Records
---
Amino acid sequence: MVSEHASPLAALGGVDAGGQNVHVAALSEALARRGHLVTVYTRRDADDLPRRVRINPRLEVVHLPAGPAAPVPKDELLPFMGELAEGLQRDWEHRPPDLVHGHFWMSGLVALAAARPGPAGVPIPVVQTFHALGTVKRRHQGTADTSPFERRWLEPTVGRRADRIIATCSDEVVELKAMGIPAERISIAPCGVDLDLFPGSAPADRCDRTHRILSVGRLVPRKGVDVIIRALSLIRAAGLRDVELLVVGGDGDATATEADSEVRRLLAIAAEQGVRQQVTFRGQVPRQAMPGIVRSADAVVCTPWYEPFGIVPLEAMACGIPVVAAAVGGLKDSVVDQVTGLHVPPRDPHATAGALIRLLSEQGLRQDLGRAGQQRARALYSWDRVAAETEAAYLQTLTEVSAGTPRGVPGRLHPVEGAAL
Ligand code: UDP
């Protein structure tokens, strides 16, 4: 596994640490449980990190130098990817892997560069999961997208050159085909949920308000927490006044979070909407505490502008908590409207308020949706099942490559001729 910015060992909730970290960690563990030897390569972002961390006899995390041994926003990492690819090649001198799986477009670049054939050999097969696509991000974020300009052609090139792409939802397949990737080279394997951790044993304490609604995620504008705050104000106007919105995520604990510009923006909206007293920012919550917090809520609300997959709704479903979900991206696959939650259009505070009023007013409906959600999470989204689907995509790739099926088409991988990538 190559996961340049998203270490499986990182704390979650910060701007660049969320679903991809969870995905790489849990998928790697599940593949190791199936008997594979898994190495996760990630960037060394602190100088006290050991080079190799053994998680269990079949799984290790390797920190490789790529730029400064300090936090660097992921959108500024491209210049260091050549160094990361060289580190991989050095690590593979004695024991190359059977297959490389890149996570995020820059890891795909690294995987393809490092997997190039040596003087005697053939390239190592490369499977790619994008987690997020630049085309979608640009469509929604416009000039606010801080991705490097080169992503516009490097990401599709990774898609065309990799031997197989694993999409995490059906919506992504449409986007990948629009990028010029043939359907026969795309597999689907969703994200999963840790069913050993969720639902946990007991709900966390909650404040003494009648209802709690919960938002969990990285605190970035595209997660749409402002939509929930505006909905809270409409819920209040409709007469449900005793509702708390708990917002989990951010770069540190609750106090540190107040220094965050996104929190200040959201607090200003809450004040303007007259619901400041009803909104609590909890800051970053460690994994072990998450199930209790999810279970303390009457509903989990996910109203992103767009969502490549979205693990949080699965965590809510695994806890038996109904989900109000914007009908975008992976949420259209994971949350079944009227069965495990309620769909609302994206960026629509009125529809979000309507769905929440219905849920908060009908305990029976909450219980029905919660029960169905738990069944769905258990039946379809265990990491063991996701690992089996991923393994099937790996085996198909290895079979095709050894049978000489034409591989991904060539294309320029680096804007600078002769550069390391
Ligand atoms: N998360 C966490 N602590 C936090 C905030 C988030 O453990 O303070 C976890 C959350 O439970 C979920 C992941 O981070 O497992 C977020 O994944 P998701 O796919 O929903 O969003 P992404 O970060 O990929 O946009």
Note: The domain at 19-192+383-402 is CATH 3.40.50.2000 (Rossmann fold).
---
Amino acid sequence: MNFSMPVIKTKTKLTEELNKLSHKQDLGLVPTMGALHQGHASLIKKAVQQNPNVVVSIFVNPTQFNNKEDLDKYPKTLDSDIELISSISDKIIVFAPDVDEIYPDTVIPKIFDFEGLDKVMEGEFRDDHFNGVGTIVEELLNIVKPTRAYFGEKDFQQLRIIQKLTEIQNIPVEIIGCEIVREEHGLAMSSRNERLSKNIRQKAAFIYTTLKTAKVKFGMENAIAVKEWVINEFKKVDDFELEYFDITDVETLTPVQNKIKNVKYRAFIAVYVEDVRLIDNIALN
Ligand code: PAF
């Protein structure tokens, strides 16, 4: 296996590399912030299956962090990231620019109108987070011009916002959502899981277990009752602090109270454990 895969640092070099590829062939893009795990691996594998050419970007995007400490603590593991990427395919193009390359003048996000999708849940607790995500994803889509771009459903709100971004900015790309990959005990895979102690990491399966029971309950009760039940479950445990739990319409992400026939719903949760903020979600119907 070849672990000495070249890493492209500049937009000019990336464009040169992309120009060498056949324009008739599909191109997949997997944007990441590095610290890659099996969740990312599943996105990259899907991209490789669906496209003869694939770009994986690794860039810890400062404009989507509302908390400086979170940004500073974000793990940077380029060598093992490259190892994981090259174990999937050694033909993948890795783009890992520095902050100056992406933000040469100011490190501030563009402001988008995501038609309210960014105002709920994560948007309520993380100021400007989705403007930052929109800024970097638009930039990457414009540089790479992929046929398809891949995002995990763990960040389902982000996925919906990126779909909206391509619609409002008229970017011709197919956005592919990929299923959540879980650790053995059920915790959704995330780079942040590394910051949890071993014991708590196992116990954090509680988040997914609660979501699964909420799903069953939503088959029998309305969203308010399910939300109350979840809030109470979290009051019973010491190590977990619930930030939000919401059941929303999948399209609008508006929290709902009662079910309407033929509408698709999803439950979303954010929890603090050992000062680490974890999110997860589950399809309800
Ligand atoms: O999901 C992530 O890792 C990031 O938000 C993304 C999409 C790579 C943009 O920085």
Note: The first strand starts at residue 7 and ends at 8.
---
Amino acid sequence: MSTGPVDPTTTTAWTRLAGLAAAPRPDLRSTLTPAWVEQQTLVAADLHVDLSKNLFDDEVEAALLALAEEVDLHGRRRAMFAGEHINVTEDRAVLHTALRLPAGASLVVDGHDVVPEVHDVLARAYDFAERVRSGDWTGATGRRIATVVNIGIGGSDLGPVMAYEALEPYRQEGLSCRFISNIDPTDAGQELKGLDPETTLFIVSSKTFGTLETLTNARLCKAWLLERLPAGTDPSAAVAQHFVAVSTALDKVADFGIDPDNAFGFWDWVGGRYSMDSAIGLSLMVAVGPERFTEMLAGFHAMDEHFRTAPDTANVPLKMGLLNVWYTNFLGAHTHAVLPYAQFLHRFPAYLQQLTMESNGKGVRWDGEAVGYDTGEVFWGEPGTNGQHAFYQLIHQGTRLVPADFIAFARPSYALTDGDTDVHELFLANFLAQTKALAFGRTADEVRAEGVAEDLVSARTFPGNRPTTSIMAPELTPGVLGQLVALYEHITFVEGAVWGIDSFDQWGVELGKQLAQELRPAVAGDAEVAAEQDPSTQSLIRYYQENRGR
Ligand code: G6Q
């Protein structure tokens, strides 16, 4: 593995990029030639990616690729795929890519081959999923399972729920999933509403099996189940039939009362936000079945191979990651929008928020030195066209630069007409219109030519030259979903590698967890602990107590 991180601002390429950013830059109106579009339209597995509407040219691209060389991005990529401990603050390998290696491949990490273990767990999880799907696995009273409830949070929730929504057309009828994550009791209260305990199966998904929210919700669900099953049902049989677990801490799973035979493991080299393709995806496996899950894994792997082997100028995650660095560090962007033109991807931006912001929201490099440059854009988004009627105004005419990724599919998940029109075509026309409007805008003269009164011309002018990337695929299949997720995993990696940060730890979530534990007694009425708090916290606790009637 490469030694300490390079401060990217000390590289020649960084200086060159700063010079390029300061010089007058050609407008998309002039740069978008057929040759440029051809050059910047890339293929990665099933994804067709058009980078041409980004604010760059050959010179910027060459400088960005030189920056990648100078920070030894390729060395770090090799180290990740080889299982070196690139998560230095936790001294761990970063091997989500091993979760999707095909059976028969081999990857020796810390002295042993991890691929057979990955496939052993997958085989057990697939077997379990098939038993639930076929009705062979029943609840304690012998009834077939109709609802699977995943209890997990963060990385143990966002991926499964996002993929469950994305793959709706592939779900088995008569079997649905629900997801409980928040410790707000409203979440469990709502998700459990209407469920029949006899046909409900809970999956407790927790890498550490020590997460307050998840364990609290798991206990809550256990109590809910035991109170509602028919009188006389043996509680331990009930837990054995209605609770399974996914965790790296199998001893703690047993302490909770879950039969270790019904527990599915994974490894410390899988980060929570990189784990939806491990057994953490068990709810999804049950919903869509092992065959579709395998197709999704193949999609992940295809993108891994693309990232690992495609030449730099054709490498989609590499170029998208470097463009994000260009926008963040040289053109002043603070946020990045992801705008899926696919209703089924409505949770994809939320999923990406964790992936990107928990990974790259860091202020020190992996050797502990403070960074002297921006890291980690704010990722956000909503599906089109809903976003068009909400926040696109700011992207079109606001004062901020918001690079945006548009994602669209040639074939609809539902082919419907309104009588005359293929509605998917209307939808796609909107996607194309938005990227076009952002690129070219509308000049004052064009607005005048439409007969707009002079005093309204400036309000109706669109500056244009706003960058977008268009990602298209034939259809939102399990394989394409895997490719999309892996694409963003690798974009995140590329940005983190340039910034020299550890994209795989998440120490920033720890302080709040610790303080919540310390504050619990104060919220519950312990005046002594309350008195130790700062004045604002004390005042908020008083407000709570008065209004809760404590
Ligand atoms: C992800 C984070 C975090 C984690 C949750 C749940 O990378 O580590 O979101 O997934 O805190 O953790 P457990 O799976 O251990 O319950």
Note: The chain has 21 helices and 13 strands.
